[in-house]
Design brief:
Cytochrome p450; 17 helices; heme; five-stranded mixed beta sheet; binds protoporphyrin IX containing FE; alpha+beta; globular
Length: 491
């Protein structure tokens, strides 16, 4: 029994009234489920229950309570076991689903692979991927392009970064469009989401065409991953010193086989899938949301462009890691994008024991869904919380004219990368990638939305993406030539 004080038990917790047997099942649209939870949080408060076919989910929306849940892992809370089973059933037995000692072991090797030190030394490769993006646009896009699907370019770029950094394998999907790896990856999250929210595991007895499609994609991915593994095994054979000092994630996983407590082949495959998936959708969707805000606000776009001109000077591209840190405004814009459009607005947990959160006693095994964006959109934490104000993330030292925003700002409440011991180990890598790819796009093109802002909807399929996003691109004069023209004019 939990030994903290509490004033409520789950018998006191209410929620939206459903209908007999089905509960709230027909009150929601699956792809906007997070928005229903956010709306209900306003009505029912920091804890409420939803019920799908008799299965109850406790929704937690208070940021302090959510931080407590995230922090108290793996002891008091674990990832939802049903979610773990579903993800592992597909083949992803790795750091995201592992618990307790297993998780510690998986996390160590993942964190090492994604360490700041590794990302910094890998930086030239990220620049190379950005240059390929630019080459691709130079060769394939006219001066003006309408209704362009920029999200798929971001997806390719993030796949290339992850496969290079973590697997030492240069896929160059940015330029070689015949590779379909991202099409296969794209099927996984929506399916996981559908199965988690499905009250009955129908797919185990009767496979729909989309279930069979997923099996086909997993088989294709297995072949690709087999190639990554073969390359890493060859490297280890040719240079046995890599066994002690592996140069990437895959080598580290394979090298463990000669040591105590090795990773099994299922774990090796599972972690490679995990890394591939975790690194792609999240970063690419965040870049798509960035595009959404920038393309719909010309003032914001010119401000970002001014900073790009200022930092790049006469250069065409960022050339050193230190320069990334000079994009103070763009960084603030990205933070604001992640506050308003976190790609993971909901995280799924399960109580390992009876545990008191806030004033509530939550019994062992309760399914708890933390709804993270409620706090990020609350006036209690951020002034004019629903507005896009990147300046709120700038401090006085970031600007010449003193602190640009003095309103309420509880930065810790926005948790786009999760929190506690299981917070996202790819944060630093993704922040670096996002600056580089955003600069590459925005220095080159002026962007407008091809559809009205209202037509672009939040679509939740385990991660949240902008549905219907499509942009018009107009090539700019290059940054260096604009600067030269300005210099000439001032002479
Ligand atoms: C904008 C980009 C990204 C966002 C918003 C994001 C967000 C998240 C979130 C919310 C979690 C769950 C954290 C928790 O449970 O507290 C997570 C976990 C994870 N992320 Fe990311 N992520 C991003 C990019 C990446 C990248 C680039 C990689 C690797 C290439 C990555 C690898 C992982 C892994 C391995 C986990 C599982 C950690 C664990 O369970 O211990 N992520 N991420």
């Amino acid at each position: 029994m939990a030994n903290q004080d509490y004033s409520r038990t789950i018998a006191d917790i209410k929620g939206p009234k459903g209908i007999p047997v089905f509960g709230n099942l027909f009150q929601i649209e699956r792809e906007q489920i997070h928005q229903y939870y956010e709306q209900w949080a306003k009505e029912y408060g920091e804890f409420f229950f939803v019920n799908f076919l008799g299965k109850k989910i406790l929704i937690s929306s208070n940021p302090q309570n959510n931080a407590y849940i995230l922090k108290n892992r793996p002891s008091k809370f674990r990832r939802l076991s049903k979610m773990g089973e579903i993800i592992e059933e597909i083949g992803f037995y790795g750091v995201f689903t592992a618990e307790n000692e297993k998780w510690v072991k998986h996390r160590k090797v993942t964190q090492q692979a994604l360490s700041n030190k590794n990302v910094k030394s890998f930086f030239p490769k990220i620049v190379q991927v950005a240059e390929r993006l630019e080459n691709y646009w130079d060769s394939n896009l006219n001066e003006e392009v309408k209704e362009y699907n920029i999200s798929s370019d971001f997806t390719r770029a993030t796949v290339d970064v992850t496969t290079n950094l973590a697997f030492g394998y240069d896929m160059n999907t940015v330029e070689n469009h015949e590779n379909e790896i991202q099409d296969h990856i794209a099927k996984i999250f929506p399916k996981v989401n559908q199965r988690i929210n499905s009250p009955l595991p129908i797919w185990r007895y009767l496979k729909s065409s989309s279930d069979k499609d997923l099996d086909g994609s997993m088989a294709a991915l297995k072949v690709t991953i087999g190639e990554f593994i073969a390359k890493a095994e060859n490297n280890l054979k040719e240079d046995p010193s890599l066994k002690e000092n592996p140069s990437n994630f895959i080598e580290a996983l394979i090298a463990s086989q000669d040591k105590e407590d090795p990773f099994s082949w299922d774990e090796i495959f599972g972690n490679i899938y995990t890394m591939l998936l975790a690194g792609e959708d999240t970063t690419a969707n965040s870049l798509s949301w960035l595009t959404y805000f920038i393309a719909s606000d010309s003032k914001l776009q010119s401000k970002v462009y001014q900073e790009i001109e200022h930092v790049l000077g006469n250069k065409e591209q960022i050339t050193s890691f230190e320069e990334v840190g000079e994009f103070k405004f763009l960084s603030a814009v990205l933070k604001e994008v992640l506050r308003l459009k976190p790609v993971s607005p909901s995280l799924y947990f399960q109580a390992n024991e009876d545990v008191v959160v806030g004033d509530l006693l939550i019994p062992k095994d309760t399914f708890v869904l933390t709804q993270l964006r409620v706090g990020a959109l609350s006036e209690d934490n951020f002034e004019n919380a629903s507005e896009f104000i990147p300046e709120r993330w700038l401090s006085a030292k970031d600007t010449s004219g003193g602190c640009p925003f003095t309103g309420k700002h509880k930065a810790e409440v926005a948790m786009p990368f999760g929190g506690g011991p299981r917070f996202c180990p790819g944060k630093f890598l993704s922040e670096t990638e996002m600056i580089l790819f955003a600069v590459t796009l925005l220095k080159k093109f002026e962007l407008t939305l091809s559809v009205s802002k209202e037509e672009i909807k939040e679509k939740f399929a385990f991660t949240m993406s902008p549905e219907n996003l499509s942009v018009n691109l107009k090539k700019r004069n290059s940054v260096s030539s604009t600067n030269l023209m300005e210099q000439n004019a001032s002479i």
